């Protein structure tokens, strides 16, 4: 029995309620931001955080990405990789630590205000509007923009030519790899200053994975810093400028991608020798 | 055999009333389906929202009538309709602020909101009866028929008359306009697309910068307009009685579920399916069959499958059949 009065008990009857698609991000008002110059472009600095009143999941964890870089977070299952990303995006309760973006402390901002500040986020699952067409997905990505976004859309179509072909098809009808492209494309439509990807290659075939990595490198070359969580640690670290190995919600190893790949400890524990 | 007269009789008693009733149900079901799709619960208060909106329209109609305002051969209620809609919008936004918003902020599960809406139903219901009374109210004026049965007979020389009431004409025309506007809004405008995005995936909508509270507000405003229009048209066509509007909830929900909850096209199709089922099953077919059957084989009885008292049973049975055979409804809504 749960103590949560608004819990999930008795909610399987879809004739009365449409729980599918219901959000999990709790609405919250934004606090103030203040200038905090110096440091990397985006940093979640010594974050201690958890969900609601639950226990801490992150313990003094630091994740950062600088201009023109790809930073990769790897680690075993349940290490808090996705949680770390969510904490940087303001989707859970920070108990200690700060998030700074471009010389500004944004710890108090709500996720939607972080979007407005120029952060783009691609969640791991449910990262597209399945019932809407590819083009509508991109339009929704550009929702906060009031200017003409056709240029950006053309850029996204250049980056992912398959999407242009399928632009009038419902996004839910696409293959796994194509969906991920829609998801990344949607996030690019805001013209973010930093892009955060939560396991962009989850559930796609190895060939598609290679292609997605190539695309991500291409995005990074346009100058957008990328912070991503990745299951395929070896491949991800190969393209990473900076790597974070998390274990049980804390930083275990930090270094450039090459350093981590060469580190015998990291190899033994996380890369299979 | 007299197919022409049979067709006229069929049109007069089944087709035209069925289309008019179907349009009213479709407008009601659209409101239900929008709340289900976007606010994620079955809004049991929809019938009484219709009653409240219609009540406001009636009161303004009476005011206009006493002031001598009229629309000529059209009912004065059409002039009062915008005021009714405005009242319903304020009512729903107020209810949302006082009641639903609290639960939305807790991310309460849909089933809780369903029960909350049931409470809202009783309050609306009580207020409606308190203000306008529980009795039948008549607020129809203007010309009663576009074409009366007698005129039709004189015009064509046929035995059967075809009556076309003004209210039926208004219902059909209004329904077409409203549905076209709604679909244009949902599929072509920025706000409409943001509603569909929110319905599809709340979190991602938030991450795209869509303001949930704004989506909810627009939804309630559209639902208020749809409910008031549906209620007023029903009241003009039949009569206004608060309890009837509460009862309308059943065919409206049946329509929304038959069409596929969450699917606007489905709501419209479902509305007509339910309306025609009710009308054809409770209609006494003696007259039409008398024209169609070969001589000597005309039925003696009424050939009425069910008494009109059982019309709600028809909605129920169709609902059951759909849930058993095609749980997602005719138009691939959410699986129930």
Your description of this structure?
The complex is a heterodimer of chains A (273) and B (336). Chain A has helices at residues 81-88, 111-116, 134-141, 150-159, 161-165, 176-188, 206-221, 233-239, 257-262, 264-270, and strands at 34-35, 42-50, 58-65, 70-74, 93-101, 104-105, 119-122, 194-198, 226-229, 242-247, 250-255. Chain A is α/β, with parallel strands linked by helices and 273 residues long. A six-stranded mixed β-sheet of chain A has the order 7-8-9-4-10-11, sandwiched between helices. A five-stranded antiparallel β-sheet of chain A has the order 1-6-5-2-3, with helices on one face. The N and C termini of chain A lie far apart (44 Å). The model of chain A has no long low-confidence stretch (mean pLDDT 89). Chain B has 336 residues and is mainly alpha-helical. Chain B has 14 helices and two strands, in the order H-H-H-H-E-H-E-H-H-H-H-H-H-H-H-H. Chain B has helices at 3-39, 46-67, 77-105, 110-132, 149-156, 166-188, 190-200, 202-207, 212-237, 242-247, 249-259, 264-282, 286-292, 311-325, and strands at residues 145-147, 164-165. Chain B has a two-stranded antiparallel sheet. In chain B, helix 12 (264-282) packs across helix 14.
Strand content of chain A: 15-25%
> Helical content of chain A, roughly?
25-40%
**Proportion in helices of chain B:** over 70%
Q: Using only CA atoms, what is the Rg of chain B?
A: 21 Å
In the CATH hierarchy, the third-tier topology of chain B is known as ABC transporter involved in vitamin B12 uptake, BtuC
- End-to-end gap of chain A: 44 Å
Please tell me the overall pLDDT of chain B: 92
CATH third-tier fold name of the domain at 28-118 and 230-273 in chain A: Rossmann fold
Please write the string of helix (H) and strand (E) elements of chain B: HHHHEHEHHHHHHHHH
* CATH superfamily membership of the domain at 28-118 and 230-273 in chain A: P-loop containing nucleotide triphosphate hydrolases
Beta strand count of chain B:
2
Q: Which structural class should the secondary elements of chain A be placed in?
A: alpha/beta
| Beta-strand content bin of chain B | under 5%
Q: Low-confidence stretches of chain A at least 5 residues in length (pLDDT < 50)?
A: none
